[in-house]
From TrEMBL:
Function comment: Catalyzes both the phosphorylation of dihydroxyacetone and of glyceraldehyde.
Gene Ontology annotations for the cellular component aspect, listed alphabetically: cytosol
Xref: SUPFAM superfamilies: DAK1/DegV-like, DhaL-like
Residues of the active site: 235 (tele-hemiaminal-histidine intermediate)
Keyword Protease recorded: no
Binding site for substrate: 71-74, 127
Pfam family for this entry, one: Dak1
Catalytic reactions on record: D-glyceraldehyde + ATP = D-glyceraldehyde 3-phosphate + ADP + H(+); dihydroxyacetone + ATP = dihydroxyacetone phosphate + ADP + H(+)
Record family assignment: Belongs to the dihydroxyacetone kinase (DAK) family.
Protein's name in the database: Dihydroxyacetone kinase
Length: 607
């Protein structure tokens, strides 16, 4: 049944797509370089894909600084909002993948200010993990920094454990926070509160006529000609419902009803009453013509008026896109009833900015009666940071465990684990394409390939050093949630090996249990949530209880198999209806990939 379903999806919903690229691997970096050419007030750090203001040093001395970021493909978010009055820096991950914690830490260190730094993050698991880790590392180094996670998607009901996804409301949060930071004397707490107000009082709903396509991918998933999708995520995550094509009027009416319905307890995020003041934002998801976008603005304004709400501002344009997705999202920001507080927030929204992505529009209520290379100084600072990192790495070498590790056995285990992951990629990709965003298999394969290439250079005489090196390779090679989870586990595993040793399976079991405890402090995913934790947790638990790698590997595979019948509580599949997940009867892609890795690891230990 599962194989038939996969074939059906590939035959009817996939086709080739064209893009303007030189090399998909370098597309993000080359795009950033073009952005900096067109906007001389920007600079970028090529090795970390961090975009920042050219005058960052003087800015940091005088005000709270702001950072945002995430996967690329959502332009102008976030690099297009770097400049006077908004962001001080933006961090760019691979397409639809979170930047690594080291990239983010570089940005924080680059813009650190005695007044503090605020980091604004979209509510996606990978972004929250990586940005959170970077913020904690920065705090440990004495940097004054705080973070706000924005979730404004009403397609996700409030009973969801993953929370609302971050959409265009995140850009509004960055706008008001940036304006607040530019006000002389503003504190970090005041800037944080400005962003938090938007987070708590905004709601967004998107609709797409079709899925977007990731450059470099050989296929593209498509909606049938007789369907559009309401609530489709900005990474192609399934929405709340599929509808027949509707007129713009009918479609907007349905969307505004969902955004404002006070009876829907699962989605009534905005507390509205007669004449509640609101800001309306209509966002192009990337593939809608200006002609159609303006029609959607007209319909949105009229639909909001019909709900007896008072519109204070209307914003339209491309704020947070999804590559070439033909669709729009509508955001409502509920303003304060108190006129003084309301005007203060509107002043922040109207504050003039010098950024390429924010539109210049009228700041009055409408009468609705009817690569630029881094400077030498910056390069020197980058070199200083590199030297600091090197010193830290040298210090870590002093912690290497005293017990002896079998380097040949360790090399065999790593190589076979990586080879098994590469061989499993087509199957993992198929599962993730149907019940995810399609990148899990490619991500795992890229990391595995990089690890095999680096094998001759790994410090295989040290289990501790090898685990840290593997974490570093994965972080530099791929991004996203899977990368963060693997890196946290491997880093903690290295620390566990330095504590317990690495000469026998008992010591590795204790270190693995230590690593699992550390990982679980960063994620709430547990057995039964339909994630890779359904495979990892049983593996570690059985290994700790039995010291038997064969039994532990079987437990990991059984855990992956069990996800076929589980309802998704975490991860991208949690946005899919329970019925669709049940009907597909496919395992979680991340758990399946991990089971393949564990089986390869076990095989290598026997060679």
């Amino acid at each position: 049944k599962s194989i038939c379903l996969i074939i059906y999806y590939h035959l009817f919903f996939f086709s080739l797509a064209k893009h303007l690229v030189n090399d998909s691997e370098n597309l993000v970096s080359e795009s950033i370089q073009g952005l900096c050419y067109a906007n001389p007030h920007l600079r970028w750090i090529p090795s970390e894909r961090v975009v920042c203001r050219a005058d960052v040093e003087s800015v940091a001395q005088n005000q709270v600084t702001l950072i945002a970021g995430g996967g690329s493909g959502h332009e102008p978010g976030f690099a297009g909002f770097v400049g006077e009055g908004m962001l001080t820096a933006a961090v760019c991950g691979h397409v639809f993948a979170s930047p690594s914690s080291s990239q983010i830490l570089t940005a924080i260190e680059r813009v650190q200010s005695p007044h503090g730094t605020l980091v604004i993050v979209l509510n996606y698991t990978g972004d929250c993990l990586n940005f959170g880790l970077a913020v904690e590392r920065a705090k440990a180094r004495g940097i004054l920094v705080d973070m706000v996670i924005v979730g404004d998607d009403v397609a996700i009901e409030n009973k969801s454990r993953v929370g609302r996804r971050g959409l265009a409301g995140t850009i509004v949060a960055a706008k008001v926070a940036g304006a607040m930071a530019a006000q002389k004397g503003s504190t970090l707490e005041q800037v944080r509160q400005a962003a938090e107000y938007v987070n708590k009082h905004s709601a967004t709903l998107g609709v797409a006529l079709d899925h977007c396509h990731v450059p470099g991918s050989t296929t593209v998933q498509k909606l049938p000609d007789d369907q559009i999708e309401l609530g489709l995520g900005i990474h192609n995550e399934p929405g709340t419902s599929k509808l027949p094509p509707l007129s713009a009027n009918e479609l907007v009416h349905k969307m505004i009803t969902l955004l404002t319905n006070q009876e829907d307890q699962g989605r009534a995020y905005l507390k509205l009453n007669q004449k509640s003041p609101v800001v309306v934002l209509v966002n192009n998801l990337g593939g809608i013509s200006t002609l159609e976008l303006n029609l959607m603005v007209k319909e949105t304004v009229q639909a909001v008026i019909q709900q007896n709400l008072e519109i204070k501002r209307v914003l339209s344009g491309t704020f947070l896109s999804s590559l070439n997705m033909p669709g729009v999202s509508i955001t409502l920001l509920r303003l304060q009833d108190d006129s003084q507080e309301q005007n203060q927030l509107l002043d922040l929204l109207d504050y003039n900015v010098l950024v390429p992505g924010w539109p210049r529009t009228s700041s009055v209520s409408l009468p609705f009666t009817t690569s630029i290379a881094m400077t030498d100084e910056n390069n020197n600072k980058k070199q200083e940071a590199s030297n600091t990192t090197k010193t830290s790495a040298d210090n870590e070498k002093l912690i290497i465990e005293k017990s002896v590790v079998d380097s040949r056995l360790l090399e065999n285990a790593i190589r076979e684990a990586a080879k098994n992951v590469i061989e499993a990629e087509p199957e993992v990709t198929s599962f993730d394409t149907i019940l995810g965003d399609g990148d899990c298999g490619i991500t795992l394969k890229s990391a595995a390939t990089a690890i095999i290439e680096a094998l001759p250079k790994l410090p295989l005489d040290s289990g501790h050093g090898t685990m840290l090196a593997l974490a570093d390779i994965i972080e530099r090679t791929v991004g996203g949630t899977s990368s963060a989870i693997y890196c946290i586990f491997l880093s903690a595993l290295g620390a566990g090996l330095s504590k317990y040793g690495s000469s026998n399976v008992t010591e590795w079991a204790k270190a693995s249990s230590h690593a699992l405890d550390a990982l679980q402090s960063y994620t709430s995913a547990r057995v039964g949530d339909r994630t890779l934790m359904d495979s990892l947790i049983p593996f570690v638990q059985v290994l700790s209880n039995t010291n038997n790698i064969d039994e532990a590997t079987k437990a990991g595979r059984q855990g992956a198999e069990s996800t076929r019948t589980l309802q998704a509580h975490m991860g991208r599949a949690s946005y899919i209806s329970t019925e669709d997940v049940k009907q597909a009867a496919l395992p979680d892609a991340g758990a399946w990939g991990l089971a393949a890795l564990l089986e390869g690891l076990n095989s290598g230990l026997k060679k």
